[in-house]
Design a protein that fits this description.
By secondary structure, the chain is mostly helical. It is built from eleven helices and no strands. 16% of the residues are buried.
Amino acid sequence: MKAIQDFFIYCSGSNRSVLNRTPTDLQKHVGIGATIFFTGLFAAVACSYALYTVFNSYVLAILIGFVWGLMIFNLDRYIVSSLKMTSSFGKNFGHALPRLALAILISIVIAKPLELKIFETEIDGELLLMRQENKAAQESLVSIRFQPRVDTLDSEIQQLKNEIGNYEERRDTLMATAIAEADGTGGSQQKNLGPIYRAKKIDADNAQSELEEVLGRNLPLIDSKATILSSLKDQQEAEISELEQANLIGFASRLESLHRLADKSSAIKLASMFIMLLFIAIETAPLLVKLISTRSPYDYELDKHEQVFVMHHAHKTALLKNKTMNQIEYNTKLGAFKTQVAIDTEKKIIKDVVEESYADLKNGSKNWKSIFSTRGF
């Protein structure tokens, strides 16, 4: 039990030596550490599932998911441990805002893959519908490419058939008129095969000849165009049959499917929102606990521990600064004194030389040329 407690305290990022001096805060920090640990565990599971949908490999998904979980765990541990409590709530909240924003982002990243797993059955059904829609769209594109030519051929064949139909209708009308004249049911209303009948029979025969001529001209064209049309339709069907159904099983496809389901079903949308809020609450819980809590003995003891270090550092820094400044002042003044002494000495030497030379000139013992050459002027 103590080993688990020590592990969760390590997860919380708390200073164990300071915490030992404040045993009343022990359970709070154990709870914070447990929350951080399970958040990292959820992150590892979520990442592993998301990567499995992409790579379809258990080994790779578990390996990368484990590394991702460790990263989230370490990041959460740093976020919580780096928040130092003061007596001002506003100041604490201002310090916590960037950390809260990061915690919310992490919770969203963790929650989405788990949502996909929770709604897996519904998502699979929606993916099937998406595949069908995708195939229908592909078939539509193929049909659009062939349709103008198909429509043109259908129109040309229909025109040829209409022309034949017109000639057949004209032939049938003239033939019916001739027969009616012959049996007395039409025309002159006299039953005979006289000149009127023969004239109408000639018109009917001419119409039959014209029909045969049109048939001889149009039927080959109809057969030719029908063959081309059949070939086009066969080609269209072949291309449609060769279309590969989209393999919508990836992470992005599942996200799209979940989004479509949320748009269709208010229940799924509400459930998805609550799952997201749950993970946001879990992820931000350690920070929120720190924010709403008053300063505990641990915080005071930690502040005291840090202040001892700060004051010790300030003391050492001040001593080093004074020592450095004294050394600088000593070297500066000593160097200035040495320079001044050297200047005074040089001035005295020059003065003595000049006085001695002046005395030699005055006594006449030396001329000015010899003095200048001897003195080095």
